[in-house]
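Um, can you check?
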Amino acid sequence: MELKYLRLVKNIVEMGSMAKSKDKLCLTQSALSHQLKDAETQAGTALFLRSGKKLILTQAGEKVYKMALDVLSKMDQLDREMLEISRGEKGVIRICTACFTNYYWLPGLLAKFRDLHPQIEIKIYPEYINESMTRLQNHDLDAVIMNRPEVCKNIRFHEIMNDEMVAIVPPGHEWTAKKFVRASDFEGQNLIVFSKPLDTVVVYYKVLKPAGVELNHIYEVPMSEAMIEMVVAKMGVAVVPYWIARPYIDSGKVVPLRVTPKGLQRNLGIALLEKDCYPSYYNTLIDFLKESLITTPKI
């Protein structure tokens, strides 16, 4: 049954008469009667019993009226939500990060953003971490927090933070006498990483791979605390963001070293699809992250 007939039945019942309904619906008496006749033809049965000037719902009319209340209420809600979305007042952001380390700060930060913008729902998908860019391009995600992509078609990257990656070793390690470590220093070492594949590990694809360094063994440990303990136990070296290592450096558990004379920088940002039209609250999210994530101190 067409929506206009649902509105017709609802208005006749709630206004109490045809005369009052025609004014509410801006119809003539003749047009209203004609629409009611069409509605009953479409329903295949009478919707009202006529008793003088009164219209009484039939059993079929009762069902149509109840359905009209439900359907029209949902349609009104849909209209409101579409208006809110078009104005940027309400929406959903499906987000993931391409690096495990970002999950140390991402959930808490997004919770604060949601406090400021309660109508914007943030959904985090950690299970997409190893396929985040594919998911973004397939429209399963709306945004990905990642290192600046070197070659990534149809992606727009908004930088939000720059931090330094440092090598960490236990006190007394042979590297502690150095001011910095070069790619060659990693030759034959055990390297502890947050996650594979190695092409997603910053120190590997920026420093070690170009230099042709051969590692002895690679440990994959997606927990910073466990990584630190492995370094302390002399099971290998790790390269992590300075802000993650800072508490363990301050307590004397590990010693940091700059990677290469100029240091190893990691640029973090939000990747969005280039051709998609994003609501204004995405810019608000980007600005919020820029303001909230302070560039970490250098060693």
